[in-house]
C-alpha cells in the first residue's frame, strides 16, 4: 500500500460520508450477552464503539474555558470543522463531559452520524455545595452523596430522549483520585491498603448513581470509569448494577490480560474510555508520530480481537482513543498555557520507545491524534492530523461484526496498515492545508 492509497482512501471516506444520510433514530440502546459474548446494541445491531476523547480548548486556555458558553454561530463553526475530521477517520462516538447542551449532541448526531457518551465526573474533582466548591470528595459523606446523586438524576432528566446520546458515563478514574486531589497526572503510591474503605464507599456510590440514572432514563446504558483494574475485587462486590465497565488504561502496546481478567472475574462488557500513546519522545525530545501511530494501531487490533463472536475474551464493545487534539494546558494546569510543554509528568514502562527506568516519559500535552495550531483573532485554531489519524482511520474501515469475520481477517487487516505511509499522508495532508 502506497502513500497515495492512504490519500485516496481518506478522500473516498469523505465523499462517501457526505453522501450518507444519518441512520434512522431508534431510542433504545442496550448491552446484551449471548453465547457469542457481550455486545452493545444500537438500532438493533451490534455496535463497535470507534470512539474518541474530544474537547475544545484553544491554545492559551485551560479547563476553565467552556465552548458551550460561546455563541451558537461560534459553536457551530467549531463543530463543523472538527466533526468533519472525526467523521472522515471513522469515529462514531465521542466522550464529552457534562456542560454540552442536548441540542449540540443532536447536532453532532444529525449532521455527522456521531454519537455522544455523556460523562459526569461524579466527584472526581470535587463537587459544589451552595456557593462553595468542595475540592476533595468524601464518598461516604451523606451530603456529598445526596448532591452527586441529585446531579446525575437531573442530568438524566435533561438528556432523556436526546438523539445521538449513546450512554452515560460516571467518573474519570476516580480511584486514582483517592491518591491525589488534583487533575494533573502523577505516579501512583506503592501501597493501596489505606484507601480500601474510601474505595468501597466510592464504588457503592457509583452503583447508586447507575440506579439513579436508570430510574429516570432506562433507554441508555450506564458505565463507570475506573483507572485500569485497581480495586477490581471491591468493584465486583459493589458495582453489580453497572451496565458497562469503563476503563482508562495505559499499558503500552498491549493490554496484556485486561480483557481476560475482567471476563473471568467480573463478567461485564468492557469499554476502554481512555487509551493510546503520546506523540513525544522523552529521550530524543522530538515528536514521535510513528510511535504514537504504532501503539494506537496495536491497541485497536486488540479491541477488535476481543469483540463478541471471535473466540477470545468476547467482552470488548470498543474504546475511545485519547485524545483528538493536544492539550497545551495539561502540564501545570494554570501556567504557560501558550507553551507546548515537553516535561514528562509520569513514568510508564509500557511505552518502550522512550522509557528509561526511573525517569518520567509520559507527556500529557502531546496525546493528540492531531497537533493544535495557535488561536487566531476570532478564537479558532487549525488542527494538523498526525500519522495516528490516518492509521486509525484505516483501522476503523474494518467492522468486526461483519459476516464471516474472524481473528485471522482482523490480523490481516491490521498487518496491512503501513505506519510509514500514514506518516507520509500526514505530511502531505498538512502541507496541502497550509
General description of the model:
The chain is an alpha/beta fold and 434 residues long. The protein has a single domain, classed as Glycosidases (TIM Barrel). The longest helix has 21 residues. The protein contains twelve helices and 17 strands.
Give the tags:
434 residues; alpha/beta; TIM Barrel; 8-stranded parallel β-barrel; 3-stranded antiparallel sheet; 17 strands; globular; disordered N terminus
The low-confidence parts are 1-26, 182-186
- Give the overall pLDDT as a whole number: 92
CATH superfamily: Glycosidases
CATH topology: TIM Barrel
Give the radius of gyration: 21 Å
Oligomer classification:
single chain
Largest sheet: 8 strands, parallel, barrel
Instruction: Specify the helix fraction band.
Output: 25-40%
**How many beta-strand elements?**
17
Give the count of structural domains.
1
Secondary-structure element order, as H and E? HEEEEHEHEEEHEHHEHEHEEEHEEEHHH
Briefly note the structural class of the backbone. Answer: alpha/beta
Give the terminus-to-terminus CA distance: 26 Å
Order of strands in the sheet with most strands: 4-5-6-9-10-11-12-15
Amino acid at each position: 500500500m502506497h502513500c497515495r492509497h492512504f490519500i485516496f482512501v481518506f478522500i473516498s471516506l469523505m465523499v462517501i460520508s457526505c453522501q450518507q444520510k444519518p441512520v434512522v433514530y431508534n431510542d433504545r440502546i442496550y448491552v446484551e450477552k449471548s453465547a457469542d459474548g457481550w455486545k452493545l446494541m444500537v438500532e438493533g445491531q451490534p455496535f463497535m464503539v470507534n470512539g474518541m476523547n474530544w474537547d475544545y480548548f484553544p491554545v492559551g486556555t485551560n479547563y476553565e474555558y467552556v465552548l458551550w458558553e460561546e455563541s451558537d454561530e461560534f459553536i457551530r463553526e467549531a463543530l463543523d470543522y472538527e466533526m468533519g475530521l472525526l467523521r472522515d477517520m471513522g469515529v462514531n462516538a465521542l466522550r464529552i463531559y457534562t456542560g454540552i447542551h442536548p441540542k449540540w449532541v443532536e447536532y453532532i448526531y444529525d449532521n455527522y452520524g456521531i454519537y455522544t457518551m455523556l460523562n459526569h465526573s461524579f466527584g472526581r474533582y470535587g463537587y459544589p455545595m451552595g456557593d462553595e466548591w468542595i475540592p476533595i470528595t468524601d464518598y461516604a459523606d451523606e451530603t456529598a452523596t445526596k448532591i452527586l446523586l441529585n446531579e446525575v438524576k437531573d442530568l438524566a432528566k435533561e438528556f432523556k430522549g436526546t438523539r445521538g446520546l449513546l450512554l452515560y458515563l460516571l467518573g474519570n478514574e476516580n480511584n486514582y483520585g483517592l491518591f491525589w486531589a488534583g487533575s494533573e497526572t502523577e505516579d501512583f503510591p506503592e501501597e493501596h491498603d489505606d484507601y480500601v474503605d474510601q474505595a468501597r464507599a466510592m464504588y457503592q456510590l457509583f452503583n447508586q448513581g447507575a440506579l439513579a440514572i436508570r430510574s429516570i432514563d432506562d433507554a441508555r446504558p450506564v458505565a463507570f470509569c475506573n483507572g485500569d483494574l485497581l480495586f477490581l475485587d471491591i468493584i465486583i462486590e459493589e458495582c453489580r448494577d453497572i451496565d458497562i465497565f469503563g476503563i482508562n488504561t495505559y499499558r503500552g502496546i498491549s493490554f496484556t490480560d485486561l480483557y481476560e481478567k475482567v471476563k473471568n472475574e467480573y463478567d461485564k462488557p468492557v469499554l476502554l474510555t481512555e487509551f493510546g500513546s503520546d506523540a513525544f519522545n522523552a529521550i530524543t525530545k522530538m515528536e514521535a508520530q510513528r510511535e504514537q501511530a504504532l501503539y494506537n494501531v496495536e491497541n485497536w487490533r486488540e479491541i477488535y480481537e476481543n469483540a463478541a463472536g471471535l473466540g477470545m475474551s468476547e467482552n470488548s464493545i470498543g474504546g475511545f482513543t485519547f485524545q483528538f487534539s493536544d492539550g497545551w494546558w495539561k502540564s501545570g494546569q494554570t501556567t504557560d498555557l501558550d507553551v507546548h510543554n515537553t516535561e514528562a509528568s509520569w513514568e510508564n514502562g509500557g511505552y518502550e520507545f522512550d522509557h528509561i527506568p526511573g525517569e518520567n516519559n509520559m507527556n500529557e500535552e502531546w496525546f493528540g491524534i492531531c497537533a493544535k495550531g495557535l488561536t487566531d483573532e476570532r478564537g479558532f485554531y487549525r488542527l494538523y492530523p498526525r500519522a495516528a489519524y490516518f492509521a486509525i482511520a484505516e483501522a476503523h474501515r474494518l467492522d468486526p461484526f461483519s459476516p464471516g469475520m474472524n481473528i485471522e481477517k482482523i490480523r490481516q487487516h491490521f498487518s496491512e496498515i503501513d505506519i510509514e505511509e500514514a506518516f507520509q499522508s500526514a505530511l502531505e495532508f498538512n502541507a496541502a492545508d497550509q
